Amino acid sequence: MTSTKTNLTPVRLVYELSNRIRKKIQYYKNPKMLQDYTLKCLSSSFVLFLFFSATPVQKGKFIIKVEGLRNSDGVVTVALYEEDGHLSEDKVWAEFHSSISGQKSTIVTDEIPFGEYSMVVIHDENNNGKMDFNLVKMPKEGLGFSKNPKIGLSKPSFEDTKVNLNSNKRNLTIRVKYF
Description:
single chain, 5-stranded antiparallel β-sheet
């Protein structure tokens, strides 16, 4: 690679800069060009104003105490859902795991945006990463939902299990049931 040495004396540098400034001034003497430049500056300023004045998304954490575990084997998994993906395996909004101590577990979620969520707690006793079922499709492992609704033969609705996150921390207790 060759490098070229330029001899820019202070006088030459001032001359080059003044030529550039003169060209810019001549460019903006044309009213149409000046108008285009002004519109570009104003639109850029507006975009920057919107970007910097946008309200940041408020976030908080759930602190979930899980009770009713029949042993300390495996892990506890909490799956969060929003309404449109309620209890659909492929639409889990977020998932958190925790160890078990003394047949209890506490899970603190990451910061998540304020909103309404539904939660499912699974006591994954054999730590295989999924809910195990018996021959008649009843869960073999512990199961619980936010707001602790009665669990029957069908899944609870989003309305029965939704909880609102609207502060920095929201404490919940979910009781696990076994069938």
